[in-house]
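Hey team,

Filing this mostly as a record. A colleague (T.K.) asked me to run one chain through the structure pipeline before their review meeting, and I want the input and output archived in the tracker in case anyone asks later how it was produced. No errors, nothing strange. Just documentation.

Input sequence:
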Amino acid sequence: MNLSLKAAWGALKREWMLYHMGDQRFRFMFDAPPPNEWVSLDCETTGLVVGRDEIISIGAVRIVGDRILTSQRLELLVKPSKGVSADSIRVHRLRERDVAQGLDPDDAVKQLMTFIGSRPLVGYYLEFDVAMLNRVIFPILGMGLPQPKVEVSAMYFDYKNRQLPPHLKGVTNIDLRFATLMDDLALPQRDAHDAVNDAVMAAMAFVKLRHLNAPA
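Output structure:
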């Protein structure tokens, strides 16, 4: 598909999605994004099963160029419909009483969508977080989050894979664990499994990898 046809198809798809959007107040998510801006996000959940578990906290931070605007972060607690298991508490340290006064999930994702605007999304294993969010967002919009998504672990894989000799590319396992990635990039680590901390660390990795992966 040539560039003109691709652009025409993109514009047609955008108009179709806008026409079918449920809550028209969020049309701004289809605007052109502010140049050189992204939003890094993370969710803590009651478990890892998208169809069953629930979001209990959301953290997001804006990135402008190489700056991570921690003063412009979003930090939300979300009240689940069911209890919080002991296993999940051991991971994120959020007890049932901690989230008892949290936001209704619909209110939380509306705040998040307003915070994101039309900016592309950044995250570490972002697909899971987006799937959890889209469970709540789809009944509101009739669609999931439309913004482009940037996966930090994929950026790191590309960076490490380029350093391998040709005969090892594709056959050598690359450790994509978050702590390994942060340590290898010589980036400071915050307490993990805190939504804001994880969003900030993903943002730091994104900023550094963007430069490391830039064409020479």
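Quick notes for T.K.: The helical segments are 3-20, 86-92, 96-99, 105-116, 126-141, 152-163, 178-184, 195-212. Residues 3-20 form the longest helix (18 residues).
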